[in-house]
């Protein structure tokens, strides 16, 4: 037996039907403890505050005292395995509330602690600590004086419950969130964009944007290539308004090219406006988007309609055209470094780059890549040795300085070629570890 929601949990407790709770797995909304917290110990006081604020910050739930747990091998979660009745007088409700209040900021003043009597053992039962989410106070911090003699100087932490455990924010994530607040105070809510989030949150935003762009362009389940870049510090792209004539909006609507009919980032088009005020242009199996926090995303087909262009002439199915790969990657960095980064306020010097390919083994043969270019005419290459992708998908992520597009493109292409078992020295159209657009064929 088990319960599946807070409503079911409270229903079982109020009926004294504690056996019904046995088998319930710990999750984001429920945490079981066999024994009460020992408030004589400072570590236990901190543990209580951590558990309560962690659940509040994750959306709310119940801490239940009186149930032992065991680890479930299959799910790797702790599951309630037995009821340990607690005497009603063993938990000092006012003392618990005082500790929660004293160790949290903003102080949690309305912690609801209830005793649920067992139908089998009068005077004994279980306790619940209701942890209600507080959007106004979010995130609620935990703090403690480093030394009781000090009037100033506290240790602070931020906790949030993830599945069946409480995770803590890293120092970097707390620092980033402080910077978000400072940015908002200077620029208003528009400053709260992608780059101002914690590293984990920023990565989640990037993934969500990519998946949405894949759906919009019909690329899910198809061979595909993607690149994403965003500033490493909180910033906002200026000049994205519908009636703006800014350089960044013009460049996004009509992406840069280095040669006529080359492998660019897509067609010239009036972009749709995203919910956050960003922009997106979508066509069949290709998409580019720009969020106000500076997240630039470009994704395209890795099949014959883009990266594997003219595969029939090469007599090598699912073979990537080196020029398509190198030129489009270079142009991505031209758009980001020459147009997006200069439009950021406040200015930012470093950025995060994410990229990869997916579904490269879809409908065999696997996607392959060759060393160097394709030779005369740029569409030859039937004589080349092709290297199939060992894995169906791969990704990479690193931080870069605001460097020249050719250098950034080479660094990114080095990651791609490595995934095909090729050394960076065989990347074509390059010189001194830099993509050189003058080496692209003119036709």
Primary descriptors:
single chain; 443 residues; alpha+beta; Methyltransferase, Cobalt-precorrin-4 Transmethylase, Domain 2; 2 domains; five-stranded mixed β-sheet; 9 helices; 25% strand
Characterization of the model:
This protein has 443 residues and is of the alpha+beta class. It has two domains: 6-169, 2-Layer Sandwich (Methyltransferase, Cobalt-precorrin-4 Transmethylase, Domain 2); 194-439, no CATH class. 26% of the residues lie in helices and 25% in strands. The protein is built from nine helices and 22 strands. The chain is elongated and about 90 Å long. Residues 186-196 have low confidence and may be disordered.
Which class do the helix and strand fractions yield? Answer: alpha+beta
- β content, as a range? 25-35%
- Largest sheet, if any? 7 strands, antiparallel
Number of separate structural domains: 2
N→C terminal distance: 71 Å
Mean pLDDT reading: 86
Low-confidence stretches: 186-196
Reconstruct the topology from this structure:
Layout: H1 6-14, E1 30-33, H2 42-57, E2 61-65, E3 67-72, E4 77-83, E5 86-87, H3 93-102, E6 104-105, E7 112-117, E8 124-131, E9 141-145, E10 154-162, E11 165-168, H4 171-187, H5 199-217, E12 224-231, E13 236-237, H6 247-253, E14 272-273, E15 279-283, E16 286-290, E17 296-301, H7 311-314, H8 322-340, E18 344-345, E19 350-358, E20 368-370, E21 386-388, E22 394-401, H9 405-419
Parallel strand pairs: 1-2
Antiparallel strand pairs: 2-8, 3-4, 5-8, 6-9, 7-8, 9-10, 10-11, 12-17, 12-19, 13-18, 14-15, 15-16, 16-17, 19-22, 20-21
Helix pairs in contact: 2-3, 8-9
